[in-house]
Specification:
347 residues; alpha+beta; Tetrahydropterin Synthase, Chain A; 3 domains; five-stranded antiparallel beta sheet; four-stranded antiparallel beta sheet; 43% helix; rod-shaped; disordered N terminus
Length: 347
């Protein structure tokens, strides 16, 4: 059996193909590999920290090749001296870190931000999301305060730390600004500008520089979207009624009478017939009809005043209004067909 270790020892200290999610990583625990190293290579976007007896003794931040045998590197002279004196290898630590920019990390508010819509006064649940980019600027301080000698520290871990801190000022700003749901999108730049300034100091305190902070979008919770949908439907319906010359009160009266007329469980046949006659009269008045045959005659007990005949209306306009009322559900198919026939009979 050979008394010699046949493993080929590396003579170069180098961080080869680091994972994109790696922020800090210890190079090796093999004392022989450290002792026999002749060169240190710090690649583009990398840095290297040397730890001895629990203290950070040096930090390489400039990329390049360092000749450990000839270069005047005081900290490496220390390494060689105690390694050759057979001191414990566990006193030495060589850590590489990512100095390159860390791009497009996701952020988002953890829960909806609640406030009242300034225009419609209903409760709003708002969320925001986007991405940010940053780089490490104080690796030694961060290593001492956060990494603390751990063999591996990922980008994901610092991302969690940052997210736990940056969402609070953004949430406070959105709650106080109380943007209306119809105006939130046009304020994205203002939100991003405030957020970038508000969270920059958080990055600085941890030893990082914020490069870019973006708002990609906002969203409302399900309850808010339901309220928004109802308002949008009512607004569209009101606009259509306006084009027909029907105000909202008339629409509600017509709808209420229709519901009562269809309700077979309420009242008797006479009541339903009377309600249908009133609805027909109201419909005729809405259409501005000049025809002599109404849908029904008023009851003797409630005589109706003789209306002033309106100016004759073009039959095409009548048909267009009739079709819009049918599309809005103000009249049923039978009423639509009957009234359409009445208009066509006047041609």
């Amino acid at each position: 059996m050979s008394l010699f270790n046949t493993k080929q020892l590396r003579s170069v200290i180098e961080w080869v193909d680091p994972h994109p999610d790696t922020l800090f990583e210890r190079w090796t625990e093999d004392g022989d590999e450290i002792k026999n190293a002749s060169k240190l290579i710090v690649g583009p976007g990398q840095g290297c920290i040397f730890v001895y007896e629990g203290r950070v003794e040096g930090c390489f931040t400039e990329e390049g090749i360092y000749d450990l045998k000839t270069a005047n590197i005081p900290l490496w002279t220390t390494v060689k001296s105690f390694m050759y004196n057979f001191e414990s290898v566990h006193k030495v630590g060589i850590f590489f870190f990512r100095k390159a920019d860390i791009l497009n990390k996701r952020w988002g508010t953890p829960s909806p931000i609640t406030y009242n819509d300034p225009k419609y006064k209903f409760p709003v649940g708002l969320g925001a999301f986007g991405n940010f980019s940053f780089r490490i600027t104080q690796p030694t301080d961060f290593f001492r305060k956060v990494v603390a000698g751990e063999h591996y520290y990922s980008v994901r871990e610092i991302q969690k730390v940052l997210l736990s801190r940056i969402t609070q000022p953004i949430s406070d700003y959105l709650a106080n600004a109380s943007f209306g749901y119809s105006e939130i999108d046009k304020h994205r730049n203002a939100i991003a500008e405030f957020s970038s300034g508000a969270v920059r100091s958080i990055f600085d305190e941890l030893g990082f520089q914020l490069i870019d902070f973006r708002i990609e979008g906002t969203n409302f919770d399900e309850a808010t979207q339901g309220r928004i949908g109802k308002i949008a439907d009512m607004s569209a319906e009101a606009q259509a009624l306006k084009e027909l010359g029907i105000d909202y009160v008339q629409h509600q009266q017509l709808q209420a009478m229709r519901d009562m007329a269809k309700n077979e469980g309420q009242g008797n046949m006479g009541m339903q017939l009377g309600m249908g006659m009133q609805m027909a009269n109201m419909f005729g008045n809405m259409m501005g009809s000049t025809m002599q045959q109404p849908f029904g005659q008023p009851q003797p007990s409630t005589p109706q005043p003789t209306p002033v005949a309106p100016a004759a209306e073009d039959p095409m306009q009548k048909l267009e209004k009739l079709k819009k009322m049918f599309d809005l559900g103000l009249i049923n198919e039978q009423e639509y067909a009957s009234k359409k026939q009445d208009i066509l009979s006047t041609l």
